[in-house]
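Data follows
____________
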Amino acid sequence: QLRELVPDLCAAFDRLLENAAATDPQCWGKNAIAKALADLGHTECEHFVRGLRHVQREPVWGRLVDTALTLRGTCALALIAVRDLPRREILQYLTQALTDSYEAGDEREREEAAPVRRDSVRAIEQLGGEEARLILRLKARTGDSDPGVTGQIFDSLLRIEGDAAIPFVADFLNWPDTAVGEEAALALGASRLPGAIRFLETAWHAAPSQALRDAILRALSTSGREQAIDFLLQIARSGREREALSAIRALGLHSVSESLRSRLAEAIAARTEEAIAAAFAELG
């Protein structure tokens, strides 16, 4: 907490932006300075804005790779605490960061920049307010080349809006991109909202693909709620073999308590399939 060093940190940051690839390869110095400024509660925007805009391409394995991704994500998250920018301008910077690297001709570069976009989603979530919710909803509907970015939006909306976000997120369960549907299921489960758990149970019966059904069971297990555990045990007890196996494996995603192991053993006691016995034996 040596705040008297903030001017020196800012000066060093400026210095490392000059001939950046040579003076600060991989952005190690700038990353550390940006994080330190945020940790010290620095509330002036200049260096965070510069960091958010910085692109640093360096030769890696025969191609130029942008090494400033961590820096831009750090600066996006730090920007929400500055005091010398109006909220509107902060939102403008963060909204632009939601499409970080979209202008790149190299598709790999857009994919590699997904962490910056995820950090931008987190920053907008922390900023809060009606505009933040609408921006995140629009970004979800327009999509991203990385399903994980859309998944982060689902998580953020469920935290910001609670039950009000459940229908919006649930609409994505049958999205044409199946990976987005799985992200929606996992976000609903991770929210631990009772309404989300009820929706997942209903959606499981209507799911159009086995992959989505499996994702829903994993989501229910992730929630850890007793209602969800009961649903998984019921499938293990009376579902078709394929479904029962999926439910058992979903329960095994996390540490299985002796109590849960006993309940699962009771649920499958009448089953004779060797695969189910083997799946139960494999539980950690």
